Amino acid sequence: MSYQRPPVMIKGVKDGLILKLDDQCSYDQLIKALKNKLAERRHHYVDGPLVSVKVVCGNRFLNEKQREEIQSVIRSEQKLFVAEIESNVMTKEECETRLKQAQLKEVVQIVRSGQILHIEGDVLLIGDVNPGGKIIAGGNIYILGALRGTAHAGYGGATDKVIAASLMKPTQLMIGDVMNRPPDQPDEEPHYMECAFYDPDQDQIVIDRLQSYFRKNSVENKMLLEGVKQAWGKQ
């Protein structure tokens, strides 16, 4: 007899619950099984604090109405709230947006006071950001020049982005929703490229030498090195 996976499986984790939803059964069957499973488990959390729930849908596509219904079913248990709904399937529009955000756009200009340069994905700026100027990117910001104005990487909420500049003298830095004004720096200008990134342990943006950052985070930002090499080759 072949094993048939139940439509809904619940796993307790340190931060709450994970609900794994079968992606092969019908949607109506899934909703019915979800209600039954939550009712069976109600005694585990009915008298406790609020419990975070991550919903994993596998290869099932959920439209907006279905997402809202699943959230409503879970929230009806009062002590549960939906932190995330994860699916391997995305719409064409979501796919196009992610592709745009993953692209590295090269810009050759000076961002002067009062100007705003806004890029959807990663940006490689060959030029300076003057005081009063602002550069915003949905991805990483790489500046072959001086950053003396404002830079906002991870526009939209992502905190895993970086801001790198040949000369790091910003007025303000922002990564995702985390903002800080860098501490006063000595008048002498460093002769090395610096990188600003969000440190979750300190819950703040920190600045380090680019080489030091790569020694700690060598896997995810190969694009930065490639962009820098290409840009320097054009100088």
Brief write-up:
With 235 residues, this protein is an alpha/beta fold.
Compile the SSE list and pairings:
Elements: E1 8-13, E2 16-21, H1 27-45, E3 51-56, H2 64-75, E4 80-86, H3 92-102, E5 104-108, E6 116-119, E7 122-126, E8 134-137, E9 141-147, E10 150-153, E11 162-168, E12 172-175, E13 178-180, E14 194-199, E15 204-209, H4 210-216, H5 222-233
Parallel strand pairs: 2-3, 3-4, 5-7, 6-8, 7-9, 8-10, 9-11, 10-12
Antiparallel strand pairs: 1-2, 11-14, 12-13, 14-15
| Number of separate structural domains | 2
Mean pLDDT: 83
Low-confidence runs:
none
In CATH terms, what is the fold-level topology of the largest domain?
Answer: Pectate Lyase C-like
- The count of β-strands is 15
Helix content: 25-40%
If strands are numbered along the chain, what order do they take across the biggest sheet? 5-7-9-11-14-15
**Form type:** elongated
- CATH level-two architecture of the largest domain: 3 Solenoid
How much of the polypeptide forms β-strand, as a percent range?
25-35%
